[in-house]
Amino acid sequence: MRTRREGRSLRSVERAPRLSIVIPVLNEAPTLAIHLMALQTLRAQGVEVIVVDGGSGDDSMCRAKPLADRVLSSPPGRGVQMNLGAHHASAQALLFLHADTHLPTGAVEQLLHALTTHAWGRFDILLAGHSRWLPIVSKMINQRSRLTGIATGDQGIFVRASTFQAIGGFPEQPLMEDIELTKRLKRISPPACLAAKVISSGRRWDQHGAWKTIRLMWWLRYRYWRGVSATQLAKEYRDAR
């Protein structure tokens, strides 16, 4: 006969989510509800959605609360926010999703299958916006990622929770936290590069120009590779914008 404690433990295991999606947010109120509404079907299928607000000046947190399993408050910085979300996650698989990125059909099944053979991975990306160069930029990002094994946050990075904990999570730095994380993950295993495409906002390219943005991002990554601190690069990135 099971004890009451064993019964509670078994029910807890049965309720454990298949996947925890961690979404860092900062002043995303105008579109956040639309993004989270797209995840409600997944929540009904056993996926946990965690929103981590980095000190928004709008009502992002209020809009998120009815549409997420957890809404947490954090100091600003994607690395800090995503580490906090991962700390509170209940699943053995984590997906870090930007607030302006939408998942393709079948994304959860594909990434969970990929995690049976890989410690981590990412999706291909399709940038959505007005610039006619965005399809080309998307292909460049996908090809670069396949060649280098490095992924960016807007590609939807997913990882086994145990692996994420083993490497210490995201570096809590103001820029390039996704690049640094995937560099560390590469030492454990190559990524699962899923051909299914997440759709991410191309607003950065639309606002500042596609090729100007490409040049800036490559220049920043080159300087990071040469050892320039993320703090200095973040300042230069803000000044350039």
From TrEMBL:
Tell me which species this is from: Vreelandella sulfidaeris
Name the GO cellular-component terms: plasma membrane
Protein name (Swiss-Prot/TrEMBL): Glycosyl transferase
- Which keywords, in A-to-Z order, does the entry hold? Cell membrane, Glycosyltransferase, Membrane, Transferase
Q: Which SUPFAM superfamilies match?
A: Nucleotide-diphospho-sugar transferases
The entry's localization annotation reads: Cell membrane
Which interval of the chain is the signal sequence?
Answer: none
What would be one Pfam family of this protein? Glycos_transf_2
Domain Glycosyltransferase 2-like, first and last residues per copy: 20-117
Give an example GO molecular function.
Answer: glycosyltransferase activity
